[in-house]
């Protein structure tokens, strides 16, 4: 049985910073260096919660996971393959469904909280 000792309070929990970078062939502009602070992953490794930050740049994305995000800092534009685009600012909350293909463009250094569910293949 789980107790309050099993809870993760994101603002009080220490998580290691993990640097990331999109594969070079996916980058279309800038130098989108990224950092992830993953605070929680369930035992199945399908559910994850944490923070992510990124420097300005643009790269191709293909989501296999469902992701809820709240943009905390910065400005981004999401581009779909049909030519659509969505500008996001701090406070915006959104869900990216699995199967989305497009490009993520970070205009100014950004930070978001994420909740990811990765279905079994």
UniProtKB/TrEMBL annotation:
Q: Which Pfam families match?
A: Cupin_3
Xref: CDD domains: cupin_TM1112-like
Q: Which residues form the signal peptide?
A: none
Q: State the source organism's domain of life.
A: Bacteria
Instruction: State the InterPro entries in the record.
Output: RmlC-like_jellyroll (IPR014710), RmlC_Cupin_sf (IPR011051), UGlyAH_Cupin_dom (IPR008579)
**Membrane spanning residue stretches:** none
Residue span, (S)-ureidoglycine aminohydrolase cupin domain: 43-114
Q: What is this protein called?
A: Transcriptional regulator
């Amino acid at each position: 049985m789980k107790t309050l000792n099993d809870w993760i309070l994101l603002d009080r929990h220490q998580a290691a910073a993990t640097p990331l970078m999109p594969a070079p062939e996916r980058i279309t502009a800038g130098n989108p260096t990224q950092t992830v602070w993953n605070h929680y992953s369930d035992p199945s490794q399908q559910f994850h919660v944490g923070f992510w930050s990124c420097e300005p740049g643009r790269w191709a994305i293909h989501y296999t996971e469902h992701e809820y995000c709240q943009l905390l800092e910065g400005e981004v534009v999401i581009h779909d393959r049909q030519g659509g685009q969505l500008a996001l600012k701090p406070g915006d909350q959104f869900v990216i469904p699995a199967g989305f293909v497009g490009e993520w463009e970070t205009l100014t250094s950004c930070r978001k909280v994420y909740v990811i569910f990765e279905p079994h293949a």
